[in-house]
Amino acid sequence: MLRRAARAVAWPWPACELFLAELLMAECDDRARRRSEQRFKEAGFAREKMLVSLQ
Predict the structure, then answer these.
(1) How does DSSP classify residue 19?
(2) Distance between CA atoms of 51 and 47, rounded to whole angstroms?
(3) Do residues 40 and 47 lie in contact, with contact meaning Cβ atoms separated by under 8 Å?
(4) Is this structure's pTM higher than 0.85?
(5) Which phi and psi (to 5°) does residue 12 adopt?
(6) pLDDT tens-digit profile of 27-53?
(7) SS3 for 43?
(8) What is the predicted pLDDT for the residue at 41?
């Protein structure tokens, strides 16, 4: 499917493959970050705490 898409836009295959791999990794990283933030929000945890405030 990727090769077909690369031919459709006339990109050389290696450049297209690298671009799509980077795009996929960025999307996965963003989803993981948002999922983590959502879990913290749902749990009601404070995002940042100072060591002094924990004593």
Answers:
(1) H
(2) 13
(3) yes
(4) no
(5) -65, 140
(6) 999 999 999 989 988 988 766 666 666
(7) helix
(8) 86
User: CA 30 to CA 18: how far, in whole Å?
Assistant: 18
Distance CA 34, CA 31 (A): 5
Residues 20, 27 contacting (CB under 8 angstroms): no
Q: Which amino acid is at 36?
A: S
Radius of gyration, CA atoms only, the chain: 20
Sign of the dihedral through C-alpha 44, 47, 53, 55: positive
User: How far is the C-alpha of 33 from the C-alpha of 4, rounded, in Å?
Assistant: 31
Q: Which of 37, 1, 38 is nearest to 20 (CA)?
A: 1
